[in-house]
């Protein structure tokens, strides 16, 4: 059994797969120094032989999980690093290492599952959008996610204290709560729509597949005015593709 982990800023998503790649269980944990202790009892009955992880979280998260795996299972946690090229996909960054490994894995997995023309959206603490045209990774953008937008208004204004509920539809609002909710969620829809249109132009009219992952994927997807696919474990799927580039936490 192989343990796969995707450590973000707020959550650590994990799953166990067998030697054929079939999912045998999984879940999510808080992304902090307690992650290893919280994960250990969930894996007690698993016959783990390997573990691989992508992380944009604090190093203490990987350290916590790595120590637990060595202590309880005698295996080493290996971290995925970004490459200049993988499976024919070229990293567009001049400084290759500056691209987030989670973004890289999401694009690798989207290309495998959905083809060479994709708009890949990860809706977490930050919203990231990656553009893939004719098998060429053009790059992407990073913006505050839904929760960060609500927190900014809540903490930095005196009278706009609104919870982050999703509106049923995006329209001109007639009360403050609805105005904020439509503004925040609508800004995400507008951002995705803009880059979808840009990718459509770059691809000479080829309709890109819009693929969404991350904690807000299902809710945000319900507001998009075009076809899309919600792929919850897209980043985890990228781990197997990038497995030749994994390296030890201790390196």
From TrEMBL:
What organism is the protein native to?
Pseudoteredinibacter isoporae
Enumerate the residues binding substrate: 93, 100-103, 176
Q: Which domain of life is it from?
A: Bacteria
Instruction: Explain the purpose of this protein.
Output: Catalyzes the phosphorylation of pantothenate (Pan), the first step in CoA biosynthesis.
Binding-site list for K(+)? 122
Which pathway does the record list?
Cofactor biosynthesis; coenzyme A biosynthesis; CoA from (R)-pantothenate: step 1/5
Q: Where in the cell is it found?
A: Cytoplasm
State the protein's name.
Answer: Type III pantothenate kinase
